[in-house]
UniProtKB/TrEMBL annotation:
Annotated Adenosine deaminase domain residues: 9-329
SUPFAM superfamilies: Metallo-dependent hydrolases
Cited InterPro entries: A_deaminase_dom (IPR001365), ADE (IPR028892), Ado/ade_deaminase (IPR006330), Metal_Hydrolase (IPR032466)
Domain of life according to the entry: Bacteria
Binding site for Zn(2+): 14, 16, 194, 275
Protein name: Adenine deaminase
Amino acid sequence: MKSFIENLPKAELHLHIEGTFEPELMFEIAQRNNIDLPFADVEALRKAYDFSRLQDFLDIYYQGMNVLHKEQDFYDLTWAYLKKIHSQNVLHTEIFFDPQGHTERGVAFETALNGIHRALEDGRSQLGISFGLIMCFLRHLDQDDAMKTLEQALPHKDKIIGVGLDSSELGHPPEKFTAVFERAKAEGFHIVAHAGEEGPPEYVKQALDLLKVERIDHGNRALEDTALTQRIADESMALTVCPLSNLKLCVVDDLKNHPIKKMLSAGLKATINSDDPAYFGGYMNENFIALAEAVDLTQVEIATLARNGFEAAFISDDEKYRLTDQLEAYLASV
Ligand SMILES: Nc1ncnc2[nH]cnc12
Ligand SMILES: [Zn+2]
């Protein structure tokens, strides 16, 4: 099973680039930027990765990204992620970045964008990994701030394919951002949002009805509402599920109780993703393997999850055929 997963061609659709910041690289970049981290060393930092809810993680995640200042810092962060997923047979990735996490510290929008994008271009030419870049609005900030961020993105439509919504979910429902998402859609951006990670099914409904999402990031709590679950299945709306994230943030108490089988049997287009791999203990392969072992996934189920990843990607039909052909060729060979 392990080698079946390791060699399986995969797409990643839910990945925060700031969440790939491994402690070793964080210390290296902090040092070259003359920034003191409030941790003695890499081990002390890793020990702090003990979360009982989303906010515990976010506090440390925002602290970590504070050391990113120069375009090269963003490049190095992204390049390290791309090398890692190249070793895991990830052929396509759609990554999030949090511009407000940088602009509010005085780092220019373009500094973050250009560093990340240049690495993605190098990943395509040197590693053969295709990509999309999605910027997320921080939902703990207000809609005006999100609107300003959207305006900063408008000259960069050649680099940014979509907008998303992340950060502290509870108390910050999608309806808070209806106008900015309406504008983003009119400007031609793809639309996604985190919903139903900690928030109730109502937030998932709002993401569908008010933000007009094309994929739901997480979506776990949608399962509490049978009619909503049926609707998501009927609309072939993909869920970007993140197993190790769900475990580390206590969305599930044990991976054995992860609802992935319920999702699949309800006809939901679930995909597997790593969310913030440096903080949650694993990239794509580790997520697939841990989940497969915990809930006893069959090869057919694993293949379905991988296929869903390519089908739910924001790419042309031609590109989808090119990628799924590689998946089907692999499946026929094992
Ligand atoms: N899992 C997650 N949920 C919400 N916001 C995030 N930002 C980074 N990771 C996140
Ligand atoms: Zn996420």
